Structure formats: structure tokens, C-alpha cells
Amino acid sequence: MTPNPDQPDPSERLKALERKLAARKVIQPIKSHSESHHGQAQLAWRMVIELVAGLGIGFGIGYSLDLFFETMPIFLVLFIFFGFAAGVNTMMRSAKEMQAKQQAEQSADDEGETRGD
After folding, report:
1. What is the pLDDT of residue 35?
2. d(Cα 43, Cα 99) in Å, to the nearest integer?
3. pLDDT digits (tens, 9 = 90+) for 9-58
4. Are the C-beta atoms of 51 and 91 separated by less than 8 Å?
5. Residue 92 DSSP code
6. Which of 38, 61, 62, 81 is the most buried (most CB within 10 A)?
7. Which residues are CB-neighbours of 50 under 8 A, at least 6 positions away?
8. Is the distance from CB of 90 to CB of 50 less than 8 angstroms?
């Protein structure tokens, strides 16, 4: 069989196709399960520490005011509740921050998948 002069060499066509495929192929790094697990554990500890810090600061302020004004349980109880509310508020802000970060990563992943098609 003699090659047709109008058609390019099959090996050249194959090389051109491989170049096109390589240009379109998007290599995404594989996230290990342990990385995401450590990130979630870090977030959980951060939230616990924020709550305990709020309670501790509230306790300290309340106890100090009670010693100063000599009204032992009033300010202590009041500021423990304020500290708890502040700690929960800070925890919610951290959760929203993490959720926004995950949504941004998810949209970036989705965008990468659509560009790869």
C-alpha cells in the first residue's frame, strides 16, 4: 500500500493529538484524607478554645467587679453569661469563615473541572 500524499503521516497525527490532550489535561493535586482531617480538628480545637476563653474572661471580669463592689455572685454570674455569649459569637464567626473558605475551594474545583472539558 502506498501512502496517500494528501493525508499527513499517521504518526504525526498521533503526536498532534497527544499534544492537544496534554494541553487540555488538568492535573489536580490529590488531597489526602489526613490533611482535611487535621484541618477539621484544628478548627474544632480553635472553637473550643474561643468558647473557654470567653468564659474565662467573663469569669475574671465578673469576679473582679464582685470583689471591688463586694457583691459576690451578681457580676460573676452576669459576666459568665456575657463571656459565654461572646465565645459562642466568636465560634459562629469562625464557622462562617471556614464555610466561606470551603465554598471558595469548592467553586475553584468546580471551575477547574468545567475548564478541563
Report:
1. 61
2. 11
3. 888 888 988 888 888 887 766 665 556 667 888 888 999 999 999 999 99
4. yes
5. H
6. 62
7. 87, 90, 91, 94
8. yes
- 3-state SS, residue 81: helix
All residues at 6 or more sequence positions from 81 whose CB lies less than 8 Å from its CB, including other chains = 58
* Grid cell listed for 74: 451578681
Positive/negative CA dihedral, 93, 94, 99, 102 = positive
In percent, how much of the chain has pLDDT > 70? 80
Q: Using an 8 Å Cβ cutoff, are 93 and 46 in contact? A: no
- Kindly report whether the global pTM for this prediction surpasses the value 0.70: no
Length of the chain counted residue by residue: 117
Note the pLDDT of residue 57. 96
Residue at 25: amino acid letter: K
From CA 22, how far away is CA 29, in angstroms rounded?
A: 16
In eight-state DSSP terms, residue 1 is: -
What local confidence, expressed as pLDDT, does residue 47 receive? Answer: 92
